[in-house]
Amino acid sequence: MDKQEKAGGIRVTFEAAQAQAAAAIDAAPSLLTQYRCPLCRKVFACYDDLKTHYAMEHAGSILPITISLNVNDKDSEMLIEPNWTLLQALQYRLGLTGAKHMCERGACGSCTVIIDGRPMLSCHLLAVECEGKKITTVEGIAADKKWKPLIDAYCKWDAMQCGYCTPGFLVTAKVLLDRNPNPTEQDIKEALAGNICICGTYPRHAQAILEAVEVMARPPEEPKPAPGPGGPGGFGGFGGFGGFGQGGN
Question: Which pTM does this prediction carry?
């Protein structure tokens, strides 16, 4: 991962974070290749074998189920227990740990994900309820270069301390900007009202989001021309042949 060492510490670049998020999404399994019994850890080649195993060795126990979820534009099959929340499925089956396990009461917003364009609390949703829906996690946002200004602004304005709640804030902010690309400070405060920060970084969130709005509204920069032979000036430039860099004739 591309890291830059500074003043004895390590600063992770956006490009490195983007690559890490993309790698986490790619690593999420697409197809079930084995069926592991959650009670005795035996592995089976197909679901029918697992069902037979339960009937013979775990009679009366609740049989796991298979579901398919679309997360960050990727379909993934998984074996889960019927009472699992979406948060558990994301973390334990897909390895996506951006949505945080915190209050378990739907009060803090740290587990927020986007479902069909709406911010939702993944700790209060059963995973089976989410089949057929489009789910986006903070990893999906981090992997999308469009949202670099939002992440950069959060870092610049120190809109986090311990960082545990930050993914939930970023996810909610992304939904706000999708719906309203030019929000007021009051719009931002109302949108983030369901997210709690135990470190008390609230004043910084509006500053970060407003700056991200400004940056995202700017026209894209024109790509700089590649330097020609002899340096930035190319032929006839300051660093090229026939220019000052060669002394001329």
Answer: 0.83
Please say whether the dihedral angle defined by the alpha carbons of residues 120, 123, 128 and 129, taken in this order, is positive or negative: negative
pLDDT in tens, 134-192: 999 999 999 999 999 999 999 999 888 888 999 999 999 999 999 999 999 999 999 99
Longest Cα pair distance anywhere in the chain, in angstroms?
95
128 CB contacts (<8 Å, ≥6 apart)? 65, 67, 80, 82
d(CA 64, CA 175): 33
Q: How does DSSP assign 172-228, residue by residue?
A: HHHHHHHH-SS--HHHHHHHTTT---TT--HHHHHHHHHHHHHHHHSPPPPPPPPP-
Phi, psi of 125 (to 5 degrees): -120, 130
Tokens of residue 119, six digits: 């911010």
pLDDT digits (tens, 9 = 90+) for 159-170: 888 889 999 999
Q: pLDDT tens digit string along 106-117?
A: 899 999 999 999
Q: Which helix (H) or strand (E) holds 43?
A: strand 43-44
For residue 232, count CB atoms less than 10 angstroms from its CB and return exposed for 0-12, middle for 13-18, buried for 19 or more: middle
Six token digits for residue 110: 């740290």
Phi, psi of 216 (to 5 degrees): -70, -20
- Strands 9-12 and 3-6 turn out to be antiparallel
